Amino acid sequence: MMGLEKDINQYKFRNQQQKAIINLLYTHNWVMERIKKFVAEENITPQQYNMLRILRGSYPTPLSTLQIRDRMLDKMSDTSRIVDRLILKNLVKKTVSSADKRLVDVVITEQGQAVLQRLDEKNIEMDNVINHLDENEMTQLNVLLDKIRG
User: Fold this and answer.
1) Phi and psi of 35, rounded to 5°?
2) CB 47 within 8 A of CB 142
3) Are residues 79 and 108 in the same domain?
4) Spatial contact of 37 and 29, defined as CB atoms under 8 Å apart
């Protein structure tokens, strides 16, 4: 046996659907562990990395915490808490929205941009997390993952 069965020491599954779901969850966690190590070099979490990338994409236009949450990969993230932690690291800043005083606008700082720039220089290292797949297999995987979400 190889692959999932060996990795989790489980050799029987109810059906292929159960095995596929467990495989997706296991692979997600496997990839996240590698991403955690990658971003830890800059003393940030994967959720903080995701938020910084979202804010860089909108820069110089600020985003509300609601807009950020809508774009986050992990919709369960506590967006306000992540923003507060990034503020403490001087990677983002927030101001009261001029359009709606109940909202705050968040924008990435120069220091936040510098963190992403340093991580960008290691993109090949990040991409190598899935270097066992060739270009066609990556395309096929993307099609299949999109199809799952239908």
Assistant:
1) -65, -40
2) no
3) yes
4) no
Residue 30 structural domain: 12-41
Q: Over the stretch 74-102, which tens digit does the pLDDT of each residue have?
A: 888 799 999 999 999 999 999 998 888 88
The C-alpha atoms of residue 104 and residue 102 are separated, in whole angstroms, by 7
Examine the domain organization and report whether 16 and 84 are in the same domain: no
Domain assignment present for 62: yes
Q: Are residues 50 and 78 in the same domain?
A: yes
Looking only at Cα atoms, what is the longest distance across the chain? 60
Beta-bridge partners for 63: 106
104-108, strands of its sheet edge to edge: 63-64, 104-108, 92-96
Q: Could you tell me the pTM of the whole model?
A: 0.90
Residue in the structure block whose two tokens are 């971003």 = 39
Pair 18, 4: CB distance under 8 Å: no
Which residues, 6 or more positions from 63, have their beta carbon under 8 angstroms from its beta carbon? 54, 55, 71, 105, 106, 107
Distance CA 88, CA 146 (A): 37
Q: How many domains does the chain have?
A: 2
